[in-house]
Amino acid sequence: MSIFQSIVNQKINTITTEELLKYAKQFGVAISVNEAKQISSYLRGRQVDIFNKSERAKLLKEIERLTSPATAKAVSQLVTQFTK
């Protein structure tokens, strides 16, 4: 795993609600404050490798379960921006 991937994964695994909302706005992804709270709470402390397709798919399924399919799709777009 490259240093870039490690940094991005670390950011994902420690993201706050405010940071998630900031990134969503920056990349034009619409999520509510409540959804950002749920997502950041779920992510915090997990060791998810968003560069691994199966882990990313599992993560997005869990976000879909916590929020909605539309939110999971929006988060998928945001994650895609991080992994480019």
UniProtKB/TrEMBL annotation:
<dbReference type="InterPro" id="IPR020277">
    <property type="entry name" value="DUF2624"/>
</dbReference>
<dbReference type="Pfam" id="PF11116">
    <property type="entry name" value="DUF2624"/>
</dbReference>
<protein>
    <submittedName>
        <fullName>DUF2624 domain-containing protein</fullName>
    </submittedName>
</protein>
